[in-house]
Amino acid sequence: MDAQTETEVPAGSVSDEPFLGPLDIILLVSLLAGTAWYLLKGKKKESQASQFKSYSIQPTTVNTMTMVENSFIKKLQSSGRRLVVFYGSQTGTAEEFAGRLAKEGIRYQMKGMVADPEECNMEELLMLKDIDKSLAVFCLATYGEGDPTDNCMEFYDWIQNNDLDMTGLNYAVFGLGNKTYEHYNKVGIYVDKRLEELGANRVFELGLGDDDANIEDYFITWKEKFWPSVCDYFGIESTGEDVLMRQYRLLEQPDVSADRIYTGEVARLHSLQTQRPPFDAKNPFLAPIKVNRELHKAGGRSCMHVEFDIEGSKMRYEAGDHLAMYPVNDRDLVERLGRLCNAELDTVFSLINTDTDSSKKHPFPCPTTYRTALTHYLEITALPRTHILKELAEYCGEEKDKEFLRFISSTAPDGKAKYQEWVQDSCRNIVHVLEDIPSCHPPIDHVCELLPRLQPRYYSISSSSKLHPTTVHVTAVLVKYETKTGRLNKGVATTFLAEKHPNDGEPAPRVPIFIRKSQFRLPPKPETPVIMVGPGTGLAPFRGFIQERDHCKQEGKEIGQTTLYFGCRKRSEDYIYEDELEDYSKRGIINLRVAFSRDQEKKVYVTHLLEQDSDLIWSVIGENKGHFYICGDAKNMATDVRNILLKVIRSKGGLSETEAQQYIKKMEAQKRYSADVWS
């Protein structure tokens, strides 16, 4: 849709007018007719017009990406490159690893480029073999319950559902996953195997990184062996030099007008001032906070119930979906980082990609100020990876500091161990590193280049749109902990949220949000029995599920047995939504099973209750084909619950270990076993 025909409205309100009016339709038909005439008339002039970008409006076909800038093959050919590194990234880590591989390629006579599969015509992979000694590397994260990331979905479906001839394609895959999740690195494993099945040549073995441990270590260990294998395969040699080069050049812009400066927008300039639907990850809705109340009664910890107003946004959600929120970094941390880099934070600047063929012109929206970049665009609380420390070493005035940073960023075993102790175990972010290495004073623009993008934070929605169509509820624990160095580290998003309290007579605080759809759903028939296991804030999506079942009953529908297992430390401290749950229980909406781990001498958890209820569990999942849900901690709780379920299936169903495993896999395939877990 042409930008001139879009209706601009004030922040927080969205026009309810029809998407296209009569005049719009007449203009659109005329435009299409004129375009068709022009294209037919211009057939003979194709060669003259080839220098211009080509856009077309046409029905969707198999190849939907026809724009010149989506041709990675042409970019490789025009710039003399042979290496393309694709990434499937949800949080930015896979994209970062892809960038590092492409950058290092120069050292091995393999000049490279980074590519987003979503922005490329991936059918061109079939033509990559025509470039001599070419190589495609895939850095692919597995997301959710074994799914590809959003930007990799189309590519994944394409290789999965088509019998392609990939003969002659040279490739390697590095997968990013988390061992606490059941479908560990499913995407990387599948793509590596599928490309081989389609005839491609695997240049180096599949690498698998585990984010539950130190994924940086897995990546470095893999690429240490990857590059020598690439050299052997193509008969090339390393230049032997470490590549420390800037990817972006600095342009300070003191004269740029204020209305051209980004102030925190994700993509479109002024998108937070003039809101236009549809709202998504690149165009979040600035939602007013209607309610922000404390759920814990005592105990020193904090858990917030927050309600976002989405009225007029045209956003829709269902119980089980996720709300994504763009937070901002702590003001004090931003100021400290500015001082450590001797920076004037209100300087207006742009970082411009030195690779003119890259589709990514800037690392974040530019022009902006250093203050805005550090507040809205950069992950300053993340633990810095080794490549950042290696580059910071060059700015140390003291040789001992330089050697220390080089040592902990090296691949030597004792260097890796020191990195684990000094950075990972001590939870040092970039500010802490610079405070503890006093002679290190990097320029602020290089810090902005090195740090990863600040990512949205996701929360399981704790409401049902059937009861609350114009508000979205989330349940979030305030993250705050003391590190080994005696510092107090705070969660970016929850600290940001904790400050957002609506006050009578004042404008409501607003937060940029969007809705991410999920597969975590109640069964379509309300009479189907369900079991929900959600200790702590794992209760969140089940609050929405219960609201939905209550709504069905209020409408006179029959609802199946709805059993909730909830656990917390003490009834008097952290029994969240106690009044609601007890009321649902009294009215027969739910069968409530609660474990208070510290209210008695011997600790009791939800897993103990599940072990006691094997007959109930088998009745629901075995005899009545009900659904089983888990939400919460992936590392311990979810694994323990799954093992208890296997035990019940074996004992009550009379099945072997292997048959019980297959039983759960079948439940997963039927969407009868679902997990919404995090580590």
TrEMBL record:
Binding site for FAD: R457, Y458, Y459, S460, T475, A476, V477, Y481, G491, V492, A493, T494, W678
Binding residues for FMN: 89-94, 141-144, 176-185, 211
Gene Ontology process terms (BP): response to hormone
Pfam families, sorted: FAD_binding_1, Flavodoxin_1, NAD_binding_1
Family according to the record: Belongs to the NADPH--cytochrome P450 reductase family. In the C-terminal section; belongs to the flavoprotein pyridine nucleotide cytochrome reductase family.
Domain Flavodoxin-like positions: 83-227
Keywords for the protein's UniProt record, in alphabetical order: Endoplasmic reticulum, FAD, Flavoprotein, FMN, Membrane, NADP, Oxidoreductase, Transmembrane, Transmembrane helix
GO cellular component: cytosol; endoplasmic reticulum membrane
EC number: 1.6.2.4
InterPro entries for this protein: CysJ-like_FAD-binding (IPR003097), FAD-bd_FR_type (IPR017927), Flavdoxin-like (IPR001094), Flavodoxin/NO_synth (IPR008254), Flavoprot_Pyr_Nucl_cyt_Rdtase (IPR001709), Flavoprotein-like_sf (IPR029039), FNR_nucleotide-bd (IPR039261), NADPH_Cyt_P450_Rdtase_alpha (IPR023173)
Cofactor(s) demanded: FMN; FAD
Species, as recorded: Anopheles melas
EC top class named in words: oxidoreductase
Binding site residues for NADP(+): R301, T537, S597, R598, K603, V604, Y605, V606, T607, D640
Coiled coil: none
Protein name (database record): NADPH--cytochrome P450 reductase
Stated role: This enzyme is required for electron transfer from NADP to cytochrome P450 in microsomes. It can also provide electron transfer to heme oxygenase and cytochrome B5.
Top-level lineage group: Eukaryota
